[in-house]
């Protein structure tokens, strides 16, 4: 029998999370051949790596009202990992309607309380309407979530360039073509032992080829494990020789 949920949060937050995951899965099933949008060839085709088949703007338009939330079990894992490592500064690349962000905020609130360290969740979303909806959900959650989040609206390759603290954990839940540029933007701020998580790295291996090659090149200092969640969830620990 699987463990009960590890998430400690007010009942109304837990209910909102289940509701949002449900909507997200229903949306994904509706637009994907396989039932998981990020895993499908449909997404690979659309995502802009092959612009002749679907221009990026068309893909972005399709995604404008989609949650594409990180799977619930992966959200639980990230929550556990933040608590286990005492991470207080977390960057999320790709916030969408802010579902995973709620878990990050709940965990960071706990690690800050436990360690007395400062910290925050830095979320990033380029679509203004999505950012506004995310804020609406965080407000529904209340202060416990809302006060932990610094949402940067705009292209993350710009918004993450400046004003980053030393980062304990980076969640790459972003279009695959952006994953490596995002990692390189945040890299100077990653602390020794920081964790980088990237979603759908098994099903999306083709799109992530450059990211995975970079993470796996020994000189770049990452130690990698592909966690066996649906579609793969890459966990990389940053242990460079000279940091
Ligand atoms: C997979 S979704 C994130 C899901 C979210 N982490 C969750 O679990 O609820 C990826 C999001 O990244 C956003 N995005 C795409 N390109 C971006 C960019 N250049 N800068 C910031 N956000 C971007 C998309 O609009 C989309 O909402």
Automatic annotation (TrEMBL):
SUPFAM superfamilies per record: S-adenosyl-L-methionine-dependent methyltransferases
PROSITE patterns named in the record: SAM_OMT_I (PS51682)
GO terms of biological process kind: methylation
InterPro entries on file: SAM-dependent_MTases_sf (IPR029063), SAM_O-MeTrfase (IPR002935)
Alphabetically ordered keywords of this record: Methyltransferase, S-adenosyl-L-methionine, Transferase
Gene3D superfamilies for the chain: Vaccinia Virus protein VP39 (3.40.50.150)
Coiled-coil annotated residue ranges, if any: none
Molecular function per GO: O-methyltransferase activity
Recorded family membership: Belongs to the class I-like SAM-binding methyltransferase superfamily. Cation-dependent O-methyltransferase family.
Name listed for the protein in its UniProt record: O-methyltransferase
Organism: Mytilinidion resinicola
